[in-house]
Amino acid sequence: MKKWEPLAWVGPAVLLIAAVVIWPVVEMIRSSFLEISRFGVVRGSAGTANYVKLFGERVFGDVMVRSVIWVVAVVALTVLISLALAQLFNQKFPGRKVARWALIAPWAASVLMTAIVFRWMLDPEVGIINVIRWDLGTFVQNTFGIEPSSLGLLSAMGGEAADQLGHASTSFPWLIFVAVFVSVPFTTYALLAGLATIPADVYEAARMDGAGKFRTYWSITLPLLRPALTVAALINVMNVFNSFPIIWAMTKGGPEYDTTTTTIFMYILKGANIGESAAMSVVNFGMVIVLTLIFLRVSRWKQEVA
Amino acid sequence: MDHPPDEKAVQTVNKKFVGGAVLAVATMLTLASCGSGSSTGTQGGGETKAAEGGQVTLKMVAADYGDGPGAANSGEGFWKSVVDEFQKANPNIKVEVQVINWNDIDKQVATMVQNGQPPDILQTGDYSGFVKDGLLHKVEEIVSPNVQQDLLTKFADFGKVDGTSYGLPFVSSARALFYNKELFEKAGITEAPKTWDELKAAAEKLKASGVSQPFGLPLGQEEAQGESFLWMLGNGGGYKDASGKWAINSAQNVETFQYIKGLVDAGLTTPNPGTKDRKTVWEDFAAGKVGMANGGPMSIPIFDKGAVKDKYGVVAIPGKTGPLDTTLGVMDWIMAFNKNNHGEEIKKFFDFFYTGPAAEKIVDLYKLLPVTNGGIQKLSGDEKLKPFLDALPNASFYPFQDPKWSDVNTQIKQTIGGAVSGDPAAVLGELQKVAEAG
């Protein structure tokens, strides 16, 4: 009897996980083998037809590659910027409290709203970012006689050059920028919490041994920060991979499929073929697991910090 | 990237709300027991009907013809006035209307249906996708014969799949070319273009005079299928050929898109048309930033609110060799889902709508065109709408009644922009494949 006692304690949690995690995964995998009409009526088994169709999509390969680039770029930039910001916010300086609060803003605002605001700021006819580019363009043209376009500025509103979201080559960097913008606050705070756990005497010992600033950071701060860093980066990897609102609000994955990631592709497919969309979900799910495993292997998370 | 809040905060919140959670669970249990109680009642006594004194609630989803929530002409406002009057006459039937904008309505309705919670009544741009799964009431079940007979025959025929009517034409619209007279004058253009060559020449002049979008070309997701069709018609093409076979990548259509691509490449259109919605282009036209754009009666109120009031003209759309003798007739539909078995109540609502002042009011409010003989007669005096009313009998339509249309339509909206940035033949060929598949 004693043997079963723990079950009473973990049982509810296990049941909860089974209901909200495992069951949907099973359903998702099951749907990917069904033929389902556009409106959710099951028409029977599809065998592997959904997967065959998915892998046969002209844009499938591009979408997969783009998703990986998206995750790597956003997470890498986020972590780098957050490391620097956390270090800064860990110093004592006047107005630190205000600065720390201000950093929360992009996190507190709805991601969808942030993305829509950026879309408006980038509107080719009236967007504020383009108005600034135009004003600066006029300025350099009149003052120095420099062609505005050579500096990435505008000589007129409304044209191709002002339409940065109309082209993947310019819109994708903007999407990455917005994703980094909304991910940095959480990451910075996670790292800040990590920095607070590093005991001061380790730094003191390092100073006694004559370690320079860079050496201290590399050999003490970073290794001791690793648990926080790993968790922050890992949460980011999964969040960014499944990120939907930024891309949808700003480009809808377009033009065509040029800024579509797996999550967006899954949603677009859902409009025409739910089974295929479910197959995409399964692939997406697999990708997250694979990326996570690779990440954990690379970051050697199990290895204790000496 | 909505990160989980930190655990401490969650714990404090949890402590505070434990009481609330208990209450919530208790409420849920109570509600659940109520639900099961009423469902046994239904099994015993058949469906609760309005006639038996029970209250029936009809859920309706409608598209927004107005300028969105909060605007004076918002769909919410319009439907509220209709429903208030209807409920006064039929106190046993309650109608709940959810108005959704055109960009999202298809996807949101699909989600509702996928979740097994379709509305009772749906008013949107297409009905055919629902027919194959047997989700809709037949038209005979949801309107009186006199209403059905008053519908324009050509229009009503498009509501049929395999000889049975499922979709009721709701309102219609036709298209024409709007041009900004002031910009034309400034660019030294004396006459609105009638052919593609004239259109290109006019666009070049507009461009030279500093207009950022000489031709407003929305090939984005909102209504790419409409803009594309107008251009196809200009070259004797279309989505289907005369024999009713899909012909999206016909020689005429490929030539058409090569011509448009030429305009785009020369910077004579909205930049990156594949990413621009109709709404944006019309707003830009209203702001005086677009030289010409295709529009309909429903764009008149938008333009009249902007800087171009009284400064624009309307002409037939230019084709390759002359103005179009047809136009895109767009019909929107209203339909009823059979899941909740509310046919009788729906019939009361539809009869009220079509025979009462509501149908007239929506036409007037949003500058749409009627779909009934009675409606057209009432409007024949309106000079501003005359060009559109005249064009209606000769209108061309989307191949709505083809069950493949929903799939094709989805794909057109996503990809046809590529036909003017990449290879027209390849993009149209892919669309043709979608149309012919399965």
Quick description:
The complex is a heterodimer of chains A (306) and B (438). Chain A is mainly α and 306 residues long.
Question: What report would you give on this structure?
Answer:
The complex is a heterodimer of chains A (306) and B (438). Chain A is mostly helical and 306 residues long. Chain A has a domain at 57-124 and 163-299: MetI-like fold (Orthogonal Bundle). Chain A has helices at 5-31, 49-56, 60-89, 96-108, 111-121, 128-144, 168-196, 200-208, 213-241, 245-250, 262-270, 274-299; strands at 34-36, 42-45. A two-stranded antiparallel sheet of chain A has the order 1-2. In chain A, helix 3 runs parallel beside helix 7 (168-196) and helix 3 crosses helix 9 (213-241). Chain A is flat and about 70 Å long. The relative contact order of chain A is 0.13. The mean pLDDT of chain A is 88. Chain B is globular. In chain B, strand 1 (56-63), helix 2 (75-89) and strand 2 (93-100) form a beta-alpha-beta unit. Chain B folds into two domains: 56-173 and 330-389, D-Maltodextrin-Binding Protein, domain 2 (3-Layer(aba) Sandwich), CATH 3.40.190.10; 176-328 and 404-436, 3-Layer(aba) Sandwich (D-Maltodextrin-Binding Protein, domain 2). With 438 residues, chain B is an alpha/beta fold. Residues 1-51 of chain B have low confidence and may be disordered. In chain B, the strands form three sheets. In chain B, strands 2-1-3-11-6 form a five-stranded mixed sheet. A four-stranded mixed sheet of chain B has the order 8-9-7-10. Helices cover 46% and strands 13% of the residues of chain B. Classes of the chains: A mainly alpha (306), B alpha/beta (438). Chain A: This is Multiple sugar transport system permease protein. Chain A: Belongs to the binding-protein-dependent transport system permease family.
